[in-house]
Amino acid sequence: MKLEKNIYFIVNESSGRLHPDEFESLLKKMISNDNNFIHIFKTEYPKHAITLASDIASKITQKEEAAVICAVGGDGTLNEVLNGVRKISSSLVLAYIPTGSGNDFARSHSFSSSLEKNIEHVLYHSNEEILDILHYENSETKEVNYAINSIGVGLDGSTIQILENQHIKEKLQRFRLEDFSYIYSLLKAFFRQKPFAIELDTENGKTIISDAILVVFTNHPFFGGGINISPKANPYSNDFGIVIARQLNFLQLLYLFALILINGNHLHSKHVHYEETNLAHLHINTQQPAQKDGESFLHSTQLFMLNIEKQNFQL
Questions:
Q1: Statement to judge: residues 168 and 97 lie in one domain
Q2: Taken in order 189, 193, 199, 204, is the CA torsion positive or negative?
Q3: DSSP state at residue 285
Q4: Is residue 284 situated within a structural domain?
Q5: pLDDT by residue (tens digit) across 221-271?
Q6: pLDDT tens-digit readout, 106-120
Q7: Taking each helix axis from N to C terminus, what angle separates 181-190 and 155-163, rounded to the nearest 10 degrees?
Q8: Confidence class of residue 165 from pLDDT cuts 50, 70 and 90?
Q9: Residues 49, 53, 56, 58: is their CA dihedral positive or negative?
Q10: H-helix segments, the chain
Q11: Coil, helix or strand at residue 303
Q12: Which of 48, 79, 162, 214 is the most exposed place for a label (fewest CB within 10 A)?
């Protein structure tokens, strides 16, 4: 089979399980006479994928060429590529090859665990689909961001901040506990997290909670590397899920977590508020750490708006 369009690969070699030049060498073995259609760009520093994606999107738009921009890395790399592309255009096509540690987007769409098979799929077998994405707007600064999997405030954001700490990563690697890094960080964050008051406005009405510790807007079922936080979430539904956890003690947290792992009945717990909508306004009374697709950012505004937009993907 031959390629019929340009594919721009944005590769984060520092993600998860990818070794330097591993992706490029494997890709070159799989393409024969299609080299002119393949373009590889490697990230060199944090957030570099945003700049690369914006520059590539500008070039594609100016030339009006048939092309795909493919993120190679973890969920965070995919998020950066999405945000870079959306600065330029909302009509370009994205693809993804998962090489990160969490890979929640890949898990939700049943990607192969084989790097070679995922490369082959992007090159020759993928089909274009339209997926929901989360559009976030800071009501004070008017800053706009996008997420593919989830946006979380409170405990979720604190967990990601701890998870990104290089000292903790090295500590877990030393004891070969990398697979438990999210759980470790979650427990550490839990004992630090203080409850905060929120006011949520959606088409379902107004919800006021005085003791929230976690607010997650979900477009896919999974977050945190496979935790099924929102079993009903569906990126084709034109709605997103909202999961809010109220203050609870450690034993209640363990029970809630067991429900998540066993059958998803945590959504019916008295400690959890759940609803689905396509537009939400959230007011928070204090500054809280936040995350989007597993990358931390500081939620410095007290009010933000979130809604669904559409993005073309090759899956």
A1: no
A2: positive
A3: S
A4: yes
A5: 998 888 999 999 999 999 999 999 999 999 999 999 999 988 889 999 999
A6: 999 999 999 999 999
A7: 130
A8: confident
A9: negative
A10: 22-30, 48-63, 75-86, 104-108, 115-120, 155-163, 166-174, 181-190, 250-262
A11: strand
A12: 48
Residues 201, 295 within the same domain: yes
CATH number, residue 42: 3.40.50.10330
Q: Are residues 57 and 117 in the same domain?
A: yes
Contact, 160 vs 295, CB < 8 A?
Answer: yes
70 falls within a domain: yes
- Within this chain, do residues 172 and 304 fall inside the same structural domain, yes or no? yes
The contacts of residue 159 (CB under 8 Å, 6+ apart) are: 182, 185, 186, 188, 189, 224, 291
CA distance 40 to 70: 10
Q: Is residue 1 part of a domain?
A: no
Q: Do 118 and 238 share a structural domain?
A: no
145, 300 contact by CB (below 8 A): no
What pLDDT score was predicted for residue 101?
A: 81
**What's the whole-number mean pLDDT along residues 262-282?**
95
Do 92 and 208 have their domain in common? no
Q: Which are the contacts of 125, defined by CB distance < 8 A and separation ≥ 6?
A: none
β 93-98/67-73 pair status: parallel
Residue 214 has pLDDT above 80, yes or no: yes
Here the tokens at position 171 are: 């500590």
172 and 90 share one domain: no
| 111 and 13, same domain (yes or no) | yes
Domain containing residue 65: 6-126
The percentage of the chain sitting over the pLDDT mark of 70, rounded to a whole number, equals 93
Residue 74 has pLDDT above 70, yes or no: yes
pLDDT in tens, 33-71: 667 899 999 999 999 999 999 999 999 999 988 999 999
